[in-house]
Specification:
The structure holds 2 protein chains of 2 kinds. By secondary structure, chain A is an alpha/beta fold. Chain A is built from 8 helices and 19 strands. In chain A, β9 and β10 form a beta hairpin. Chain B folds into 3 domains: 143 residues, DNA ligase i, domain 1; 197 residues, D-amino Acid Aminotransferase, Chain A, domain 1 (2-Layer Sandwich); 124 residues, OB fold (Dihydrolipoamide Acetyltransferase, E2P), CATH 2.40.50.140. In chain B, 36% of the residues lie in helices and 23% in strands. The chains are: A alpha/beta, B alpha+beta. Chains A and B meet through α6 and α8 of A and α5, α6 and α19 of B.
Chain lengths: 338, 539
Amino acid sequence: MITLTDRGLYCEAGDFYIDPWGAVGCAVITHAHSDHARDGSRLYVASREGAGVLAARLLPDAVIDPLAYGEVRVRHGVRISLHPAGHILGSAQVRIEHRGEVWVVSGDYKVEADATCAAFEPLRCHTFVTESTFGLPVYRWPPQQAVFGEIDAWWRGNQAKGKASVLFAYALGKAQRVLAGLRPDTGPIYLHGAVARMTALYRDGGVPLPPAAYAGTEANAKREDFSRALVLAPPSAAGTPWLRRFGNFATGFASGWMRIRGTRRRQAVDRGFVLSDHADWPGLLSAIRETGAETVWVTHGYRAPLVRWLSEQGLRAGAMDARFEGETAETAAEESAP
Amino acid sequence: MRAFAELYAALDATNKTNEKVEALAAYFRHAPPRDAAWAVYFLTGRRLKRLLESAKLWQWATEESGLPAWLVGECYDAVGDTAETIALLLPEGEGEAEGSLSEWVETRLLPLRDLGDAERRRILLDAWRRMDHRQRFVWNKLITGAFRVGVSQNLVARAIAEVSGVEENAIAHRLMGDWEPTEEFAARLFSRDTRDAGISRPYPFCLAHPYEGDPAELGPAAGWLIEWKWDGIRCQLIRRGWLTFLWSRGEELITERFPEIAALGGLLGEGTVIDGEVTAWRGGAPLPFAQLQRRIGRKTLSARMLAETPAALIAYDLLECEGQDVRERPLEWRRARLAELVERAAAPGRLILSPPAPAATWEQAAVLRQQARARGVEGLMLKRLGSPYRVGRKRGDWWKWKIEPYAVDAVLIYAQRGSGRRASLYTDYTFGVWDGGQLVPFAKAYSGLDDAEIRKVDAFVRRHTLERFGPVRTVKPELVFELAFEGIQESTRHKAGIAVRFPRIARWRTDKKPEEADTLETVRALLGRAPSGRGSGEE
């Protein structure tokens, strides 16, 4: 029902693409990260919750058709509906039904709870198209409350040394999830401009978040005392002159890759916090199991190991060479990467 | 065990020296002496040898994980470290690894050596099931060795100095040489009584930084002692309590491997420590290092070998004289006393005063440096007159000004993932040079690129893989790199028929096309210029 073309995952029966990497007529979008939502298509179908952030990420003239979770659009007899994927605000799995056959394309997802977006909804289907960013058994996430506790302890430790705490997290999604998990009574919270823009959209969408101030222009920043503050900034801000305004500071990075010591040490940051918006190994396996799917396509991440594992469990599994990136391991990565 | 795992995590979480020292000091303040002794033992890079074959560790971890071996292998590829892979692979334990570090080491780790497999397996599984992944990682590291947490012996010494109030140099001295991690050792280590130097104990070696710039920036040459950089084994010869000890820089006691050097001890006064280089020496000149290396490899030394490859100590510094630590005296003073002492010993061809290189100006020194290869030395040593003998690798007073390395432009042909910090990136490269229209592999290099370049090459490797053989990828021959190396010799074990020493990437030649890389013929031409084979020097 879905085939891989040079412009992306294509549903011929319904004549639409899912997260295409080329310009197409109709693009159904799982979520607003730049490797899934690209400019140039004539029409975008996206979740109502995610329409705001998507509009902010695309060119101003993009036409977006918002769909409530669970609401059905029919195109050439193909029933399309969007269901929460638990990745970021408005992220969706795409359910496609045609002549009784059901496919679900997961986009990026996590099964863990997230205070800033709707929880992942398990869907039954015949064929499941899944990501596999962290598709190896060494990736198991610690309980997020423990991670937020570590962040708070790190913040307090830095305060005791008179240092600001600069925490790198992707501007869209991760930064807001971290913000929601911070304890505002520990100290003042500041945001980098890119984070502030996305955070405003989250607040507009009705997501409750603790108060946080814009870290401001250079002139403003000089008047602030950051020695007790926590600053949320995108990974691309690492090592840039923008950080100078914070004077003496420690850096941290919130990412699933921080689970591996080598990746953690390769970043020029003081601390790594294991926090991901993608499913870990047990999460991937439980999500796949709950779909009841007999056929599983794996789009990106540790594709080969997951395909082989699923095949050995008796499923039909294959790799689909999609141009999605998942979570990049480097702080130096483009801001726009998810 | 918990406190030690937390110390490890704290050390691992920072790159800042001060914070590491702080974490160490905090640990030592509260650790029972036996624990402190073991912690020092492991943190200074000592390891328990032959506890367990790592194949068994893998097998039991794989069984415990319930995963197929291929998937555990994939995990290793992503993580790049055995101890860590196992720590992450297994579900979190109850986090209750009660008991002290010394108890865990002495009642569980050490017995692994002599127990049967069933009992060993039981001990490991029990530990894994009780520990959380951080403790498990440290525990596995104790078994596999190689801590690599960015802590040097000097850093440990600094922390102990902070806790005990004893001067850092004295602590560094106590940490040298052979010792057992016992309660008594810890008591001595932290003791405020500094009249303790064990009689065999060497001093920390003063190490030189490589000099890269124009030596004229160091000021007039007259302010420097210019010596040859010998290519042998850096050693301290110690004479105390009528006994003689020869220590290598790797802190190995090698007195017995060099009976002719040991015999020199009897010619020295009581309380003497000489810093120098052991080389194979005949007819007033050094023999190639490879010959010395053959001697080191032998368990028993035949009379023939002693005659063919006699060893000498080229003495260049005096650290202890008449029982007094003289490291704080100026270099000229130490040299003058050393010269007297060598003269008195009268052992020509056995104990040799390192001769100054005949250079009065930097220009003359530069000429001598160019001739170094022909003289069988590695270049020049520059030592600041008036300087004390320092601990470790401190910048400013000692420089090694080595010969320019050989350089060859070669093409990247195979890549493999790195380990440790570079796991999951393609960082281990094999390079080829042209031989009749074919690229033949000629050297492997793992270092020389910065992180940004590594990421670019990694991305190239992933996009341009032609074939895979296990962990190795054959890539499209497109990227050209300048490789630098120190030595070159014929080899029957290498496809190209040559082996090079210390190859590393000098720079990425983005300006060159692969067809412009060097040929095997030009590389082989370097053979004629090289002195015959040599192995690894200490410094």
